[in-house]
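Hey, resending since the last one bounced:
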Amino acid sequence: MNIKLSVKPLHFLNYKKLKPRYQKDAEFFAETLSAAKLANNCIYFGNFALKATKGVKDSIQYNKTDGTDLLNNQHEYTIQLMSGELQLSLQLYENVNSHYRLFAYTKFGDIRGMVFSVNLTTEKESDNIIFLTQKLKFVEQYDGNKKLAQAHRRQKQIIMAEIIKKLGLEVTDNNDLILGIFDPISKKFINTSPDKFLNDFIAVSLIKGHFQGNKGYELDILPSYRLTENNSYCNTRDDNIDKKLPRKILNQKTKRNIPLSLRYKVLIRDGGKCVLRGRSANDGVILHVDHITPYSHGGLTELSNLRTLCQECNIGKSNKFIE
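The structure tokens again:
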């Protein structure tokens, strides 16, 4: 007698088992972020500040009180630009791929759209720890020469990454932005504070929207980066574009990049404090994980050669070897 058994794939069973945990993680994160505040009701880009008035007047994506958004409209702001009012809504919900993501949506004039997001479900290299990371990249398409269009996207990627690094945030050689590390069990950020994460996530989102060029707005503090007929590198064919780009854009993986799980081990080992100045996320700083002997000087990416530094110490150190 033939007996047919209906067996569900193992990955499906595991996901169904883990889904409630992911949901709880997202709820704890939403609870922590909902209590965060913008300092002086401003969004800070280094020393430059944009005034942000609480609330928006229009409907943007899912900003309705129907339970879809776990943040429940707690972080919605109207920002006055020289060219008009920019409305911003942060939303956290389970998307169509069954992942919980934190999204930033904007509305400027009649143009609505998503500018940036981070995934709370997939970025978990260590048990119960959420790594709030996202690759900085652009995917828009242009008519005409595909290679030149690719060059334009890469140039924007380079410029945006450098701007974000100057704000004190960590961007790896693979252009992965590390905004925060969150422990849902303790409901605490490991390397930053809720207020700092809120400000940085909004700042990065607005910068990304500026460079996308199709969200209707441009930030007054940044140069326009729209594709026009006057862009010389888009009018001149160059089959050797890749040879002119920085190696950090060409390399997809490098041993210099520190795995997320290893970053977490370093932060925990160092007590969540800068080893040079003793400052922690509670002091309003972002903590970086740094090579003691710089990678460029032969330093290895291993636990014994890594340490926790605050953003000021790490930026000031650069690639100098400091005992």
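Residues 255-323 form one domain.

Sorry for the duplicate.
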